[in-house]
Amino acid sequence: MDTTSQAVSRIDGLVADYNRKLRLARATDMAKSGRFLEAESLLHPLGGKPEGARELDLLARIALRRWRLEKARRFWEAAMRAEPANEQYVKCLKKLNQWEEKAKRWAKIAGIGLVAFAVAILVILSVRSLFRHHPQVAIPPQHTEDGKAKKTVLREI
Q: Would you tell me how many other CB atoms lie within 10 Å of the CB of residue 74?
């Protein structure tokens, strides 16, 4: 009986490993086609935690594609704890840090650019209002004693 129960538990382990690999492959295909929610649901069986580092890595990549950088960081850190010898996760975290730094720089540049644009618009509007021409009004012609009209004169108001 002991050998039978060992064989059954071994087969159960193989089936569970096969199912996990199959879920990972399906989730990878779904993520590649942009079906991120479906891929995430496959990687969180029954709403639980992912089973391994490869699942965590794929979840981090999905989070990155959806611009959820902090979530991606947490998944890669968890993947590093699950597989400390895997250098790929360290490289991904370094790349994520570089992207965050670039995003901060671009946000700062965009903020400065927006302020400069607003100031330029205000200056242009102010200068325009200073040099705006006042409307000119034609004064009706005045008649001389002989009945001829004088030239019309334009005056600024």
A: 15
